[in-house]
Write a structure and sequence with these properties.
This protein is of the alpha/beta class. Helices cover 49% and strands 18% of the residues. The longest helix is centred in the N-terminal third of the chain and has 23 residues.
Length: 151
């Protein structure tokens, strides 16, 4: 009987401390996060990636779920976001215009290497943000809970 009484008192004390903490805990974030990347100068892969973005947006809208999408480019894939060479510039502009939850990230390491090789400044589309390293940025996104997709 004494053992049961001590157990109940211990349980009550545990609940007294635990319940307020649970009640104050923030609700789980229900936003889905997806990171896609392009590292080839291949218009087919660029369009496939943008098709994936549009399909994800449509599916999540239909099911009334929130989603954040980030497309990261590096290496030859940087052409996707280059002002002078992007074969998908108009599509990126359209997607960016109507979808603030879609972001585009361009690798600064690659831009610097291209600038040296081409002996000119590499201009990145205004819709894209320049990140120090595309590869590192992908790793950071994954650590933040982004699902990784390689189209």
């Amino acid at each position: 009987m004494m053992y049961l009484r001590k157990l109940l008192i211990g349980l009550a004390a545990l609940l007294a401390f635990a319940l307020p903490a649970v009640a104050q805990a923030p609700a789980a974030d229900d936003t889905w996060r997806v990171a896609l990347h392009v590292n080839d100068n291949d218009v087919g892969k660029m369009n496939l990636t943008l098709n994936n973005v549009q399909n994800i947006l449509a599916d999540f809208k239909k099911s009334n779920r929130k989603v954040e999408i980030e497309v990261v480019t590096y290496g030859p894939g940087l052409h996707m976001f280059r002002e002078d060479t992007s074969p998908v510039k108009a599509r990126i502009q359209d997607i960016a215009l109507g979808n603030p939850n879609v972001r585009f990230a361009a690798c600064n390491n690659t831009a610097g290497n291209m600038a040296k090789a081409e002996k000119k400044e590499i201009k990145i589309m205004s819709e894209a943000t320049i990140v120090p390293s595309g590869v590192v940025h992908l790793v950071e996104l994954q650590r933040k809970g982004f699902a990784y997709v390689k189209p």
